[in-house]
Design goal:
The protein is an alpha/beta fold. It is 42% helix and 20% strand. The structure holds arginine.
Length: 415
C-alpha cells in the first residue's frame, strides 16, 4: 500500500511544488490540508488547485473561530507580546495547524505529515514540536528544508510539472497572514537600514494618508475577552475583522522589529497588526483599573513567559496550561469598557471604566469629598522608613563611599 502524507497546504508556490515532490520522492499519496485562520487571498480555489497538481484529496478547514477562541484570546488575556513588539500572529497559528494536521492524519490513516517551512525559521520548530507532542508516532517531512531549492528552482520545477504559479509570487516579500496580523519579510526589508516601502503593507494605511480627524472607539470586555465595539456585541472573529478594518484605516499597528529567532538568527520583520495592537492596549488599560499593583507586577512576568513559550513552540505543554490557569483566574474582574483614540498611526487610551474598578475618586481626589485621612500618613512613613533608618544608622558611619556613592566627610555633615 502506498504511504499517505498529509501536507499543510497554503496554495503558494512552495507547498504547491511540495505536493508533486513528496509524491515522487516517497512514492506517496498526498492529501492536502488548508487551514483558514483568516489568511489573505481566496481559499476557495485552493482545493481545486491541490487536486489539479495531484493531491488525492484536498481538505479545507475554516478554523477562524477555533483560532480566536483557543489561541488568540488566551494570548490577549495574557498580554503576550514577544520582545515588546510582536503580537505573535504567526506563532499562534502554528499549534492549531499542527493539531488539525494530526487530526487529519489520524482520520485518513496517514503515516506522515508535512509542512513547507525552511530550515532557518521558527515555524518548523513550532510545527514539529507540536506534532510530536500530539502524535509522536507520525513521521514529519519538511520538503523545503530537505530539498533546499531556491525560489528560481522552485519556479522552474513548477513550470516543468505544470504547476500553476500564483500571482503573489511576483511579490518581492515573504508573507504570512491571519486574522491576528500579517508578517512581511525578505527583499529590501532584509536591510535593517531601509525604510519599509509602502507596497509592503496591505492592512494599514500610511499615516500620511489616514483621515485628518481622530476616530474614537469603545471596546467592551468581559473577563478579559473583547465582546463589543461601540456597545454593539460581536463574536470574536467579527470583532477582530471589524477592528482590523477600522484601525488599519487609521494606520494603527505597523511594527518594525529586529527579532531574535529561536534558532539564534536575528531577523528584520515587519508586522501589521491593527486589531491586535488596539486590543492589547485596551486590555492592559482595563487591567490597570481592575487589578491590584501586585497582580499587575506579577502579570508582567507571566506575559513575558507566555510570549516566550508561544514564540518558542511550547503551546502543547503543561507549562502553558499552568500559566493559562493563572491568567484565567486573573481575568475574573477584567470587565468594562475602554475608550481609544485612533489618529495617524497612533492608538491612545483616553478613557476606561469598570464596575470592578479599584480607582476610587474619593481617595484620589484633591478636591472636595476627599475621604483619605492625611493624619495617617506620618505614622505610615515612620514604620515604612524604620528599616531604612536602622540600616543608615548602623552602616552609614562605617561606609566611606556613603549610601549614594558620594563620600560622607565630617565637613559634609557639618554643612
Ligand atoms: N518571525 C515571525 C515568527 O516567527 C513571523 C514569520 C512569518 N513568516 C513570513 N514569511 N513572514 O513568528
Amino acid at each position: 500500500m502506498l504511504e499517505k502524507i498529509v501536507l499543510a497546504y497554503s496554495g503558494g508556490l512552495d507547498t504547491s511544488v511540495a505536493i508533486k515532490w513528496l509524491g515522487e520522492r516517497y512514492n506517496a499519496e498526498v492529501i492536502t490540508l488548508t487551514v483558514d485562520v483568516g489568511n489573505e487571498g481566496d481559499l476557495s480555489q485552493v482545493r481545486e488547485k491541490a487536486l489539479r497538481i495531484g493531491a488525492i484529496k484536498a481538505l479545507v478547514v475554516d478554523a477562524k473561530k477555533l483560532f480566536v477562541d483557543h489561541l488568540v484570546f488566551p494570548a490577549l488575556q495574557a498580554n503576550a507580546i514577544y520582545q515588546g513588539q510582536y503580537s505573535l500572529a504567526t506563532a499562534l497559528s502554528r499549534p492549531l495547524m499542527a493539531k488539525l494536521l494530526v487530526d487529519a492524519a489520524l482520520q485518513e490513516n496517514a503515516s506522515a505529515v508535512a509542512h513547507g517551512c525552511t530550515g532557518k525559521g521558527n515555524d518548523q520548530v513550532r510545527f514539529e514540536v507540536s506534532v510530536a507532542a500530539l502524535a509522536p508516532q507520525l513521521k514529519i517531512m519538511a520538503p523545503a528544508r530537505e530539498w533546499g531549492i531556491t525560489r528560481e528552482e522552485a519556479l522552474a520545477y513548477a513550470q516543468e510539472h505544470g504547476i500553476p504559479v500564483p500571482v503573489t509570487v511576483s511579490s518581492p516579500y515573504s508573507i504570512d497572514e491571519n486574522i491576528w496580523g500579517r508578517a512581511i519579510e525578505c527583499g529590501v526589508l532584509e536591510d535593517p537600514w531601509v525604510e519599509p516601502p509602502e507596497d509592503a503593507f496591505t492592512l494599514t494605511r500610511s499615516p500620511e494618508e489616514t483621515p485628518d480627524k481622530p476616530y474614537y472607539i469603545e471596546i467592551g470586555f468581559e473577563k478579559g475577552i473583547p465582546i463589543s465595539i461601540d456597545s454593539q456585541k460581536l463574536d470574536g472573529v467579527e470583532l477582530i475583522q471589524r477592528l482590523n478594518q477600522i484601525a488599519g484605516e487609521h494606520g494603527v499597528g505597523r511594527v518594525d522589529h529586529i527579532e531574535d529567532r529561536l534558532i539564534g538568527i536575528k531577523s528584520r520583520e515587519i508586522y501589521e497588526a491593527p486589531a491586535a495592537t488596539v486590543l492589547l492596549i485596551a486590555h492592559q488599560a482595563l487591567e490597570s483599573l481592575a487589578l491590584s499593583k501586585e497582580q499587575l507586577r506579577f502579570g508582567q512576568r507571566v506575559s513575558a513567559e507566555y510570549a516566550e513559550l508561544i514564540y518558542n513552540g511550547l503551546w502543547f505543554t503543561p507549562w502553558r496550561q499552568d500559566l493559562a490557569a493563572y491568567v484565567q483566574s486573573s481575568q475574573r474582574w477584567v470587565s468594562g469598557t475602554v475608550r481609544l483614540k485612533l489618529f495617524k498611526g497612533s492608538c491612545c487610551v483616553v478613557g476606561r471604566k469598570s464596575d470592578y474598578s479599584l480607582y476610587q475618586h474619593e481617595l484620589a481626589t484633591y478636591d472636595k469629598g476627599d475621604t483619605f485621612d492625611q493624619r495617617d500618613a506620618p505614622g505610615f512613613i515612620r514604620i515604612w522608613g524604620l528599616p531604612i533608618i536602622t540600616q543608615a544608622q548602623v552602616q552609614l558611619p562605617k561606609s566611606p563611599e556613603g549610601l549614594l556613592g558620594i563620600a560622607t566627610t565630617p565637613e559634609d555633615a557639618s554643612t
